């Protein structure tokens, strides 16, 4: 068993990127993710990697595109406003089948907002952000260990499906320290990339583009992308459950609120309320089938998020009318406390009994 | 019989989509000729901007990456850093390089990225229908300056070749024109110089080419050449504004 070391979330994430074989990082400073570029600016040169302090997030993500189009594992990280600036290029990369990893250590918004932890960018990450009909693969760590492991997973999924992958974590995940195994769960394999632009020597010229002007070409391309997203939905859903077997209410939460929910579940059970948890780890693909399956059995759902209700919509769609869905949201840097969650659980259950 | 004139190997046998009379095609041809002459076709990657040059991949039988509007110098930065042994060139219009993409080109130049940029200055946004660009001449009528460009409200035409020449990271910055055979030959020598700078790892190279957009200028191809000579060159002087020699490197 490998040794565990007390590590900060952002550092675990950066180390995960290195161990995934990422040697190209481009970024522009923004709180609360600065530990990532600072760590990589120290470590990349030691491994013959490239670190460029870019002039903007627009430049960063386009540099990522250039390195990724060359067949290399490349990444950038940012927060709120910086991630907004990257959306055009993310859309281009999705449209051109170019894999990359983008990390969003979420700060509150809109606008310049604040630097406190939130989950206000769920919609942006999961339901578009950029223009056009595309999806990001989105992973949501809920521990320092997952900051490390899911970053590696993000590179694997990005390469496997030739699509941008995002790791979204609130600032709490970035800043907490926990014991962490800083070695990959299984050996990292970087696949061959015969599509990479390396010059045509010994083969036909290659092209990475997203422009389709011919009659029907764009629709055909969109449908091809849709098939890819369907495959991802089928094969790559990740989630965690806790105490759902006998549950009368299912909390659904990702990232930091999921951790707090676990404490709340312990408290509720002490009081004789059978609460359980479903924690989506992949936000796209969203574990909608699982939500639907449990909704048939557990008739009450409480969604807890650090926003005003973003994943809530996906839960409602998946649960359809099988379960009553209530919501606890703390936006703008507010953090839901365990007793707050227990209160909401009671309220939700009472509402149903009364009905 | 010896062939005295043929299509460069670095150009495909395909009719271009350019309007008849447009000198984008001339720029393509001289770049292709230099690629042939330097024998670099197998190891080169091209990145066009978004504009009338976006179909670069139809005409150059080489690897091509399509960049977002204005961002090609950043894409080229990532690409060249990932593959320093390959030749990476960028081909941008004046909307692409001198308007939306000013930040990317300036910082790529300032970092001394070892890439070559060919910059087509035709004084308008050609592809979108001839709107005003930062390079539009004072008094010039475009679809968005129907009364002519006025410096009090739209500022002055921007001189990118001179501006970039002020940056330490730049190895070569020149302005050439495509309006006459003599000037095309000069332009070709500048293209070669730019690629040589890259091959010799001297840093950033940029060639600004004064080019026609007869369609949006609403003149005949022949008149368009005169517009370049009589109206553009007096404001955008031709010449080499920076040329790094081995000695001043570092
Ligand atoms: C972000 C964004 N804004 C606007 C456009 C629309 N657009 C396409 S080409 C172009 C201008 C091209 O002009 P220029 O770079 O001068 O090239 P030319 O066609 O004149 O050679 C514009 C504004 C775009 N593609 N992307
Ligand atoms: S619109 Fe202008 S720049 Fe574009 S192809 Fe026609 S003449 Fe050339
Ligand atoms: Mg133009």
Fold topology:
The complex is a heterodimer of chains A (355) and B (250).
Chain A: E1 4-8, H1 9-19, E2 24-27, H2 35-43, E3 50-53, H3 57-69, E4 74-78, H4 80-85, H5 87-95, E5 100-108, E6 114-117, H6 122-126, E7 137-139, H7 144-161, E8 164-170, H8 171-175, E9 177-181, E10 207-208, H9 217-235, E11 239-242, E12 249-252, H10 256-270, E13 275-280, E14 282-284, H11 288-297, E15 300-305, H12 311-319, E16 324-329, H13 338-354
Parallel strand pairs in A: 2-3, 2-4, 4-5, 5-8, 7-8, 12-13, 12-15, 15-16
Antiparallel strand pairs in A: 1-9, 5-6, 7-14, 11-13
Chain B: H1 24-38, E1 44-48, H2 56-59, E2 63-65, H3 72-82, E3 87-93, H4 94-100, H5 102-110, E4 116-121, E5 124-125, E6 131-132, H6 151-154, H7 160-165, E7 170-177, H8 181-199, E8 204-210, H9 214-217, H10 221-235, E9 239-243
Parallel strand pairs in B: 1-2, 1-3, 3-4, 4-8, 7-8
Antiparallel strand pairs in B: 5-6, 7-9
Helix pairs in contact in B: 1-8, 4-5
Could you please describe the fold and organization of this structure?
The complex is a heterodimer of chains A (355) and B (250). Chain A has 355 residues and is an alpha/beta fold. Chain A contains 13 helices and 16 strands. In chain A, strands 2, 3, 4, 5, 6, 7, 8 and 14 form an 8-stranded mixed beta sheet that branches. The longest helix of chain A is centred in the middle third of the chain and has 19 residues. Helices cover 38% and strands 18% of the residues of chain B. Chain B is built from 10 helices and 9 strands. In chain B, helix 2 links the parallel strand 1 and strand 2. The N and C termini of chain B lie far apart (50 Å). The mean pLDDT of chain B is 97. Strand 10 of chain A pairs parallel with strand 2 of chain B, so a sheet runs across the interface. The site of magnesium ion has 9 residues of chain B, from helix 4 and strand 5.
List key phrases describing it.
heterodimer, A: 355 residues, alpha/beta, Rossmann fold, 2 domains, eight-stranded mixed sheet, B: 250 residues, seven-stranded mixed sheet, 9 strands, binds thiamine diphosphate, binds iron/sulfur cluster, binds magnesium ion
């Amino acid at each position: 068993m490998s040794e565990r070391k007390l590590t900060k979330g952002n550092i675990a994430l950066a180390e995960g990127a290195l161990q995934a074989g990422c040697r190209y990082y481009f970024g522009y400073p923004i709180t609360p993710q600065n530990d990532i570029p600072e760590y990589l600016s120290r470590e990349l040169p030691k491994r013959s990697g490239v670190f460029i302090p870019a002039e903007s997030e627009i430049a960063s993500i386009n540099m990522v595109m250039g390195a990724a189009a060359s067949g290399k594992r490349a990444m950038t990280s940012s927060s709120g406003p910086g991630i907004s600036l990257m959306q055009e290029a993310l859309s281009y990369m999705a449209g051109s089948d170019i894999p990359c990893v983008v990390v969003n250590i979420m700060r509150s918004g809109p606008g310049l907002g604040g630097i406190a932890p939130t989950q206000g960018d769920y919609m942006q990450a999961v339901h578009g952000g950029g223009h056009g009909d595309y999806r990001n693969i989105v992973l949501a760590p809920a521990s320092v260990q997952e900051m490390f492991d899911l970053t590696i997973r993000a590179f694997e999924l990005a390469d496997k499906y030739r699509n941008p992958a995002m790791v979204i974590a609130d600032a709490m995940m970035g800043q907490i320290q926990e014991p962490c195994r800083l070695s990959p769960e299984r050996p990292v394999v970087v696949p061959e990339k015969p599509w990479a632009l390396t010059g045509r020597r010994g083969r036909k010229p290659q092209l990475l583009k997203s422009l389709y002007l011919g009659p029907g070409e764009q629709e055909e391309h969109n449908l091809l992308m849709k098939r890819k997203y369907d495959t991802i939905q089928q094969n790559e859903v990740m989630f965690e459950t806790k105490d759902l077997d006998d549950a009368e209410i299912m909390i659904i939460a990702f990232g930091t609120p999921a951790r707090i929910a676990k404490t709340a579940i312990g408290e509720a059970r002490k009081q004789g309320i059978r609460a359980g948890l479903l924690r989506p780890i992949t936000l796209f693909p969203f574990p909608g089938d699982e939500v639907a399956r449990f909704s048939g059995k557990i008739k009450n759902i409480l969604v807890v998020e650090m926003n005003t209700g973003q994943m809530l919509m996906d839960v409602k769609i998946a649960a359809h009318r099988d379960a009553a869905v209530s919501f606890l949201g703390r936006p703008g840097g507010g953090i839901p406390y365990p007793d707050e969650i227990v209160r909401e659980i009671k309220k939700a259950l009472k509402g149903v009994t009364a009905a | 019989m010896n062939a005295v004139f043929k299509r460069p190997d670095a150009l495909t046998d395909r009719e271009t989509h350019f309007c008849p009379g447009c000198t984008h095609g001339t720029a393509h041809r001289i770049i292709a000729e230099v690629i042939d002459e330097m024998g670099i076709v197998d190891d080169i990657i091209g990145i066009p901007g978004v504009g009338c040059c976006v179909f670069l991949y139809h005409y150059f039988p080489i690897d091509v990456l399509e960049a977002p509007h204005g961002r090609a110098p950043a894409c080229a930065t990532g690409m060249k850093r990932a593959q320093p042994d390959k030749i990476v060139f960028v081909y941008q219009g004046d909307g692409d390089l001198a308007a939306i993409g000013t930040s990317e080109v300036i910082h790529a130049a300032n970092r001394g990225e070892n890439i070559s940029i060919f910059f087509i200055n035709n004084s308008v946004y050609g592809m979108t229908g001839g709107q005003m660009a930062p390079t539009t001449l004072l008094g010039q009528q475009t679809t968005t300056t129907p009364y002519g460009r006025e410096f009090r409200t739209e500022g002055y035409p921007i001189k990118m070749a001179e501006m970039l020449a002020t940056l330490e990271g730049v190895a070569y910055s020149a302005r050439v024109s495509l309006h006459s055979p003599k000037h095309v030959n000069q332009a070709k020598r500048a293209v070669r110089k730019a690629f040589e700078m890259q091959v010799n790892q001297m840093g950033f190279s940029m060639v600004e080419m004064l080019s026609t957009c007869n369609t949006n200028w609403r003149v005949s191809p022949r008149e368009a050449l005169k517009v370049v000579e009589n109206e553009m060159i007096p404001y955008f002087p031709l010449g080499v504004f920076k040329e790094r020699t081995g000695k001043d490197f570092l």
